[in-house]
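Schema walkthrough. Field components (list of strings):
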Amino acid sequence: MHAAVWVREIWDTRDLVGEILDGSGRPKWNEWEGRFDPEDLNALEMALQLKDADSAWKVTGLSVGPVRKLDVLRECLYRGVDYAVRISHEGQASLHQEALWMAKAVNQLEDVRVVLTGIQINEGDYAQKGALLARRLGWPLVSYVEAIEAQEGDKLRLRRAVEGGIQVVEAPLPAVISVGVALLKEDPRAPRSAKAKLKLKHKKTPIPEWHARDLVAGENQVGLPPVEILGYRPLEQREFPSQRINGVEVSELKRMLSELREKGLVR
Amino acid sequence: MAGRIWVYLERGPGGILEESAAAVSFAAPAAQRWGLSLEGVCIGGSAFQIADAALGLERVLHLQGEGLEDFRAKAYGNAMEALMGDDPPELIVFPSTTQGEDLASWIGAAYHAGVLLGARSIKREGEGYVASRVEFEGKVEVDYLLKGRPVCITTEGQGPEGPSLGSTDVEVVAIPTAGAAEDATRIIHSDLVKRTVNLKDAKVIVAVGAGVGDEGTFQKVRELADLLKGELGATRAAVDAGWLSHDRQIGQTGAKVRPDLYVACGISGAAQHRVGMIESGTIVSINIDPNAPIFRYSHYCIEGDLREVVPKLIDLLKG
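Field assembly_structure (string):
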């Protein structure tokens, strides 16, 4: 039994301060750090927990494209995946193309019963990668999965977040699972850290590369990417004239409340 | 038939979702401008439910068949594909919901057509569409060229008229569909809260993050909300941790609110939460971390432990 995890390196665009765009109107990508897509990391943890519970599972990390700043596949090895495979290609790739190559790669791996991936839509990502992949594979898709509750034979019982609550779904395998979960550090589903022992072991482990061209050889090629970014425009930002208040000082809290009263916000 | 726009009419516990009605109002002016017909597509459920949604649509295609009662991505995706065959509409507008995102991406992959989740505007350009989306935590708007057919977008936007729900005599065309059986995914159990609280109209909201920590502090926050005559709200993590129900969640997968006063208790201010509350009139934040991102978006930044600050505020308000 094989679980594949589609992981990506994304730019760390959290809490950016200052100008986002450079003089030519493009995002300053190269000034930012790389980051393991946090939902992909949650997906990886789910796959590793399947293996923790039943050693018949093998886990493979898959990613498309070269390393920019952080090698997410090596990070997968440091956390305990059995194999990692990089899909290489020339030039830019759209998410549609990535999903197609990923589907081909999944078919080349032996006995993949489930593919897990994060649900996050990053800057420049225009669709859900799990849904694109599921359609390419022709497999059922369960998205916004928060937890794998149980494995019963060739089925997984999954808990997913939907508008207004949760749903428990039984997914027959093979299936694609898109993971979307808000986690606290102490949550048992929170991603494990890299292990020192595995870091030593896998620091130089070669990661095989499969070329996209070979994966789609002999197949009907899909056409040009159907999505293209035309341009970026800065949006006017709301100003927040703010004051710091020391929460220990009752007088400061009192002053704040009287200001709020003057504005009619507190009666 | 050429020249059509479809809107996906998603069913919820109380009929067609308001988000779908909003998507119709978003698509209607565009359809009119471009001389395209506007049709709804609904999967499963009863025709009565659909007819009850006055949506300004020319007609509604209602896919019916075994196994279509509950949403399952592959079953619904296959059903829509079967309906479109090799003559899909030019554009399909989906609401920005978990279903809408699944289906827009699924159909985009099936037809190798452009997809954009979370579009804010759309215009026609040559053979394609240009849709924009707000990115980088609200700092930049990005234009995407979407090609192929059907272009699929989800949107939270709405037209100038806004969503309208109510009785209508829209023509509903029943279309029997098979193929749902190919998706053996099964819903075992749903625990859905019907919205009982309308956070969108609240004047004051007091929201908690998972940092609320313990029951005693949570009860104090509740008391503060009562004294301010406000509604309680929560981050997704706080809902996940069981402090409040899903209908009180604010943020990307919850409600987008704009009260006159927003009090954030122990909320760090992750982007996912921020998009739901950043348009509030006056924002007061209480956080123990002086560097919490929420302070960059607050008018009053109270540095301190919730367990100490909230009781002090309560005393002051009572006094």
